[in-house]
Design a protein that fits this description.
- The chain is of the alpha+beta class and about 160 residues long.
- The protein has helices at about 30-35, 40-50, 70-75, 90-95, 110-115, 130-140, 150-155, and strands at about 5, 10, 25-30, 50-60, 80-85, 120-125, 145.
- About 30% of the residues lie in helices and about 20% in strands.
- Strands 2, 3, 4, 5 and 6 form a five-stranded antiparallel β-sheet that branches. Strands 1-7 form a two-stranded antiparallel ribbon.
- The longest helix is centred in the last third of the chain and has 11 residues, at about 130-140.
- One of its GO terms (molecular function) is ATP binding.
């Protein structure tokens, strides 16, 4: 049975699931181009073995955006996600690639899914601290759900 996470810091303790270490939470925000083509991106994180513990469509306010981004970012809903896993922040950054798609390697999300920096498809937290900021900005603590995925025993020792 799923239960709300009591998240207040950098990682989550899994007393119910019996995992002996702390798993990080990492946040990602799919932009307008991402919500148009996001299924493949979500699939990549799931295939890696990360667990999606929160997902919510949102609209951002103009005061949170830089002037040039308002029209683009308001063109579609954004998708806020929180992923859980061992080293999810660092690994997620590698999976996303460089912000400039010209510098991103093939196989990374940015290298495969977009061409111009101004049409960035996804943003990912670069630290546990930025994950906390993203969660507090877009989600309520009770919207993060703890559960043991069916593949966890095949992913973690």
């Amino acid at each position: 049975m799923a239960t709300p996470l009591g998240w207040s810091g950098a990682s989550v303790s899994h007393r119910e699931t019996g995992i002996p270490w702390e798993l990080e939470l990492g946040a990602a925000l799919l932009g307008p181009a991402g919500t148009a083509r996001g299924g493949e991106i979500i699939k990549r994180f799931e295939q890696k073995g990360f667990c999606l513990v929160a997902m919510k469509f949102i609209h951002t306010s103009e005061d949170l955006l830089k002037d040039g981004l308002v029209k683009y970012m308001d063109s579609r809903p954004l998708l806020a996600m929180v992923w859980e896993g061992l080293n999810v922040v660092r690994t997620g950054r590698v999976m996303l690639g460089e912000t400039n798609p010209a510098d991103s390697k093939p196989g990374t999300t940015c290298g495969d899914f977009y061409i111009q920096v101004g049409r960035n498809i996804i943003r990912g937290s670069d630290s546990v601290e930025s994950t906390k900021n993203v969660i507090s900005l877009w989600l309520k603590p009770e919207e993060l759900v703890e559960y043991k995925s069916c593949g966890r025993d095949w992913i973690y020792e």
